[in-house]
Amino acid sequence: MDIEKEKKFNKKIIIGFIYFIITVVVILLVFSSFTVIDAGHTGVVVRLGKVSDNVLNEGFHFKLPIITNIVKIDNRVLKTEVESNSASKDLQSISSKVSVNYRVNTNSSAKIYKNVGNNFETVIVNPAIHECMKSVTAKYNAEELITKRARVSSEMEKEISQKINPYGLNIEVFNIIDFDFSEEFSKAIEAKQTAQQQALKAEQDLARIKVEASQTVEKAKAESEAYQLKNQQLTDKVIMMEFVEKWDGKLPTVTSGGSALFDMSSFINTNGLKDDKKGK
């Protein structure tokens, strides 16, 4: 009896263990039969190792357990910064740094995973940026990289786009963060800017001097013309009238030994002048 009880007990344990295993398997199958795609992502369906062209969008999805795997691809804007050492057209050493914001096209998620995998930034994006930075920098002199920065940036963005677009990668924002030149070149640029500023100041000073000289000449001409006009208007009669207007009515006399030798009034017709003054 004890042996039979022991057998029955062992049998129950085995059956219970089997039920437990089945329950665990069922739970695993249930949880592996669906997936949730987060916002800003797509799901690439891989069934028995084969990548399907169908891509799952955001939300809840059912899938075949065990044989189907869902690989999530981030389709949000991603950012990478790349530094590169290159040479300009005039063989100056340039250290440059750029920032690229890009995203994976949702329709290309399966394609890029099939051809590249999830490490597309390391495999495609960064090498393309390095190559384009070097090729575009070599087209310009070091000074032009400063004066034509917007044009250089546009060319870099265009060339990078041409390399990564076929993989389903699109550039959203491209920025040149910095151009770093050799110390000797930086000093030469600074000296040139100083010389240009001094030359501009000299031109401005010369223009100011010319204006001031012109003003002085015009003022002298005006004074000369006014003087000439005044001289033309000064007749003997006008001079005498001005004298009379300022005269206090007393005439000087010349005396000798207490008696007048002659009176100045005999030389001036005061009545006539005053009459003329009244007439005016």
TrEMBL record:
User: Which Pfam families does the record associate with it?
Assistant: Band_7 (PF01145)
Tell me which UniProt keywords the record has, alphabetically. Coiled coil, Membrane, Mitochondrion, Mitochondrion inner membrane, Transmembrane, Transmembrane helix
Residues forming the Band domain are: 32-193
What highest taxon heads this organism's lineage?
Eukaryota
Q: Tell me, in one coarse class, where this protein mainly resides.
A: mitochondrion
- InterPro entries on file: Band_7, Band_7/SPFH_dom_sf, Prohibitin
Q: Does the keyword Disulfide bond apply?
A: no
- Which parts form a coiled-coil structure per UniProt? 192-237
A biological process (GO) annotation for this entry? mitophagy
Localization per record: Mitochondrion inner membrane
One GO cellular component this record assigns the protein to is: mitochondrial inner membrane
Segments passing through the bilayer: 12-37
Looking up PANTHER family in the UniProt record yields:
PROHIBITIN, PROHIBITIN 1
Q: Return the similarity comment.
A: Belongs to the prohibitin family.
Protein name from the UniProt record: Prohibitin
